[in-house]
């Protein structure tokens, strides 16, 4: 049977089957997709928000990786950097002391300043030339300005590079990456404009302290007074040194004791506390008194830091051997530095040294307490150190090498040597006194040759500067007499000298000042410069402000 008669039926079936398929296709074409109505309107905002997020993240990464600059600010080395923030401001970190915050500006960028270290050379320059303190503010201002300029240039490059690289990683299209970099630069520029518009120069007067610096507000006033007084003192320094050179002439006319050329002359100094004027005074005394040996009973430093060590360099050129014992403000690092200097002898552990015809032994202070952050061990530690020194003195005498002079920093330790040495020298108290102990040893405690350091001007009157010249017989190496020398404190121009004999004190007598002048030689008022205080010298043994240590 032919298939032709069935063809119309097959065509009709195909048409019928095609109808539902067409209807299904038509319904699919008109069925709305979930995002078809929203995509055209939301896609630009999504892209913009994504670009902003990429830009901010890239800028932050750029600042974090390459946005900081190292720049010197005065005597310290710092690292300056920017960070994203809401309130702006500046934070200065001074490890390990703490930090201070300044409300310098209002912008989405904050400034971080990290103090990395104190540069020894620049710090030493200030110590050697304290007159430069008056120009330090201008120098710091210029350093900060230069550092801020370098930070601005580096930050621009860091944010543009960071945003561009991140944009290239995310979008993989150079045009989008460049758009992110340009946007980052625009945001940084607008933040800089905002910081400039809201700059508050008075913010430095109202800092917020944290850490150990939290006590700084109570010290700012004293610090300002110290700088002011020190500037005045610098103007008087030349006249003060001139007064010192007159002391020898005054002392040579004292009739009680006339040292002969063979007499061994020892200059005892102590507690210089970083006062550079002390070196001028010591050098002048060495020259005028023809000193054979200088003995320093410690606290030459103030905090015992490595940056302070260069302060000791002048001891090489003082004109006499320098014998030194560690004080409680002197660190082991300081002791190692002194040992490397020429013309110096460090006393410790009772090991005797022979200098200028004298056998001298001493021990360093067992305590290192440069500030109140260190808990002192107290007198028991000092007595233990004194007993070790006394044992070393007895051992030296048993070897047939008796020690002529013992040296400690703390008088508590010195008292333990009673009966084991004719003379023991100490410091620490910033008060001069002399006592013959029960077993015959003479204890001589020197005042502060540095006048207590720069802290001396914190009180109503600056501390006096003290030193003593000891005369010892060349044959017996016993003390024959001593001159007590007292100078007016910072900014004052008074000078006193008095001579004393060992017979002035008897064994077992109570401690008493040995420097009430028998023949004072204060500078006359006519020698004082205009505007300086009228000299009214009190006895050098008058009580002075107790030291802060």
By DSSP (H or I, 4+ residues per run), the number of helices equals 11
In terms of DSSP E residues, the strand content is: 15-25%
* CATH-derived topology of the largest domain: Purple Acid Phosphatase, chain A, domain 2
Overall mean confidence score, pLDDT? 75
Main CATH class of the largest domain: Alpha Beta
Q: Major sheet: size, sense and barrel closure?
A: 7 strands, mixed
Which bin fits the share of residues in helices? Answer: 25-40%
Which architecture name of the largest domain does CATH use?
Answer: 4-Layer Sandwich
- Class inferred from helices and paired strands: alpha/beta
Number of strands: 19
- Shape, principal axes of CA atoms: elongated
- When the domains are counted, the total is 2
Q: Which sequence of strands runs across the widest sheet?
A: 10-9-8-7-17-18-19
Radius of gyration: 39 Å
Order of helices and strands: HHEEEEEHHHEHHEHEEHEEEHEHEEEEEE
Oligomeric grouping of the chains: single chain
**Unreliable stretches:** 35-41, 215-227, 230-235, 237-242, 505-548
CATH homologous superfamily (4th level) name of the largest domain: Metallo-dependent phosphatases
Structural features, described:
By secondary structure, the protein is of the alpha/beta class. The protein has two domains: 46-213, no CATH class; 236-371 and 378-500, Purple Acid Phosphatase, chain A, domain 2 (4-Layer Sandwich), CATH 3.60.21.10. Helix content is 37%, strand content 19%. The chain is built from eleven helices and 19 strands. It has helices at residues 7-30, 39-66, 120-128, 136-171, 174-197, 217-245, 247-252, 277-289, 332-340, 379-398, 411-414; strands at 69-73, 76-84, 90-94, 98-102, 109-118, 208-211, 264-269, 293-296, 322-325, 344-347, 353-355, 358-362, 405-407, 423-426, 433-436, 442-445, 465-472, 479-487, 495-500. The strands form three sheets. Strands 10-9-8-7-17-18-19 form a seven-stranded mixed β-sheet. A six-stranded mixed β-sheet has the order 1-2-5-3-4-6, with helices on both faces. The chain has a six-stranded mixed β-sheet with strand order 11-12-13-14-16-15, with no helix packed on it. Strand 3 (90-94) and strand 4 (98-102) form a beta hairpin. Mean pLDDT is 75; it is low at 35-41, 215-227, 230-235, 237-242 and 505-548. This is Calcineurin-like phosphoesterase domain-containing protein. Residues 264-431 form the Calcineurin-like phosphoesterase domain. Residues 19-40, 498-549 are annotated as: Disordered.
């Amino acid at each position: 049977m032919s298939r032709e008669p069935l063809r119309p039926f097959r065509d009709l079936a195909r048409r019928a089957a095609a109808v539902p398929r067409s209807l299904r296709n038509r319904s699919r074409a008109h069925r709305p997709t979930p995002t078809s109505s929203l995509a055209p309107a939301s896609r630009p905002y999504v892209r913009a928000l994504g670009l902003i997020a990429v830009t901010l993240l890239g800028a932050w990464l750029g600042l974090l990786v390459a946005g900081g600059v190292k720049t010197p600010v005065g005597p310290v080395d710092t690292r300056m950097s920017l960070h994203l923030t809401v309130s702006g401001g500046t934070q200065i970190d001074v490890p390990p002391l703490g930090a201070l915050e300044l409300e310098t500006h209002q912008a989405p960028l904050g400034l971080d300043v990290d103090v990395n270290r104190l540069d020894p050379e620049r710090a030493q320059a200030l110590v050697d030339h304290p007159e430069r303190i008056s120009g330090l503010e201008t120098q710091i201002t210029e350093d900060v300005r230069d550092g801020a300029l370098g930070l601005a240039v580096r930050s621009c490059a860091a944010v543009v590079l960071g945003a561009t690289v991140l944009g290239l990683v995310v979008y993989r299209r150079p045009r989008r990456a460049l758009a992110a970099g340009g946007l980052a630069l625009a945001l940084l520029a607008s933040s800089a404009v905002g910081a400039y518009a809201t700059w508050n120069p008075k913010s430095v007067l109202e800092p917020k302290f944290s850490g150990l610096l939290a006590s700084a507000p109570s010290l700012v006033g004293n610090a300002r007074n110290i700088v002011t007084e020190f500037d005045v003192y610098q103007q008087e320094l030349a006249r003060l040194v001139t007064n010192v050179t007159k002391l020898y002439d005054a002392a040579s006319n004292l009739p009680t004791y006339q040292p002969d050329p063979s007499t061994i002359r020892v200059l005892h100094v102590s507690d210089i506390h970083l006062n550079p004027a002390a070196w001028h005074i010591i050098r002048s005394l060495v020259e005028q008194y023809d000193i054979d040996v200088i003995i320093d009973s410690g606290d030459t430093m103030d905090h015992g830091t490595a940056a302070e060590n260069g302060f000791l360099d002048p001891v090489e050129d003082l004109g006499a051997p320098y014998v030194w014992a560690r004080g409680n403000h002197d660190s082991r690092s300081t002791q190692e530095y002194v040992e490397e200097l020429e013309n110096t002898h460090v006393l410790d552990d009772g090991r005797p040294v022979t200098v200028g015809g004298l056998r001298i032994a001493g021990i360093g202070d067992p305590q290192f307490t440069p500030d109140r952050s260190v808990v002192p061990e107290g007198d028991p530690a000092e007595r233990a150190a004194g007993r070790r020194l006394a044992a070393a003195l007895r051992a030296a005498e048993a070897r047939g090498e008796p020690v002529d002079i013992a040296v400690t920093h703390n008088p508590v330790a010195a008292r333990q040597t009673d009966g084991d040495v004719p003379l023991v020298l100490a410091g620490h108290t910033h008060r001069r006194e002399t006592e013959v102990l029960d077993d015959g040893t003479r204890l001589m405690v020197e005042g502060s040759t540095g006048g207590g350091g720069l802290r001396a001007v914190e009180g109503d009157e600056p501390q006096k500067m003290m030193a003593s010249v000891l005369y010892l017989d060349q044959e017996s190496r016993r003390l024959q007499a001593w001159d007590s020398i007292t100078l007016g404190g910072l900014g004052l121009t008074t000078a006193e000298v008095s001579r004393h004999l060992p017979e002035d004190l008897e064994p077992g007598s109570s401690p008493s000042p040995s420097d009430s002048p028998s023949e004072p030689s204060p500078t006359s008022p006519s020698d004082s410069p205009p505007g300086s205080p009228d000299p009214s010298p009190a006895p050098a043994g008058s009580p002075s402000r107790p030291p802060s240590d």
